[in-house]
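Weekly puzzle thread! Below is a chain. First person to post its structure in token form gets bragging rights.
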Amino acid sequence: MRISLAADLVGVPAHVLRHWEDEGVLAPSRQNGNQRDFTDQHVNEARIIHRLRQAGIGLAEIRELRAAPAGHRSARLTASAERMAAEANRLDAAATFLRHTAECVHPVVDECRQCRDYAIAEEATSPRPTRSGRGNP
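Winning reply:
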């Protein structure tokens, strides 16, 4: 199939598929006239690449994952999933706090147990500033 149809099926513009090919994460075959020929397998690979990109995994890491042995790939993906779960928990806590804050009637944080508890929890999980004012590396 042509690149335009493949792109529509994946849900990305055609130039994205061309970029992924240039970056070595997608390799459609070529027809006469050097036109890309996407099979159903290529479309499914592109869908997976698209999902990985949406999950914040970069093209360089995707390229490495494609070349890695299954055990290494599994460990890297598991680590990425764990980072995402931690980030989701952090965002969920922040959203809960914002919903609370929208209705909180206490003018001072220390007067509200939920506000105080959230501030303490955030302090415990945030990187400590260094002398340069930046967080720990």
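Puzzle host: Confirmed. Bonus trivia for everyone else. The first strand starts at residue 29 and ends at 30.
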